[in-house]
Amino acid sequence: MAGNWPVVRPALNNSRYPLRPGETKCWYFLKTGECNFDITCKFHHPQSACVQVAAPTLVPAQSLFGPSSQQYEIRMELKVLMELLVQFPSFLHPKK
């Protein structure tokens, strides 16, 4: 029967991506630990590829509950400025 060939599936790494020794390494997998092409990717996904994850950073409590008073003041000043620019567009484009 022509065209009835057995399907050869590549060996998979621990993340279930194809191991293709001898092929170029998948740069996206090396960078992120993931691959959008999944098992159909033509590149090599080595077992030892580990992705470095940034250490968690502490966030000041005030940022969890909203802007600080200084940030609020700046936002209000920007809002007023934007309203003025909408009302008086000639300020941006003065007549010569």
From TrEMBL:
Q: Which SUPFAM superfamilies match?
A: CCCH zinc finger (SSF90229)
Protein name per its UniProtKB record: C3H1-type domain-containing protein
Q: Give residue ranges for domain C3H1-type.
A: 20-48
Chain positions of all zinc fingers (C3H1-type): 20-48
Please give the organism: Nyssa sinensis
Q: Which domain of life is it from?
A: Eukaryota
Quote the InterPro entries the UniProt record gives.
Answer: Plant_ZF_CCCH, Znf_CCCH, Znf_CCCH_sf
The UniProt GO MF terms for this protein read: DNA binding; mRNA binding; zinc ion binding
* Classification lineage: Eukaryota, Viridiplantae, Streptophyta, Embryophyta, Tracheophyta
Concerning PANTHER family, the annotation shows: PROTEIN PHOSPHATASE RELATED, ZINC FINGER CCCH DOMAIN-CONTAINING PROTEIN 58
Keyword annotations from UniProtKB, A to Z: DNA-binding, Metal-binding, Zinc, Zinc-finger
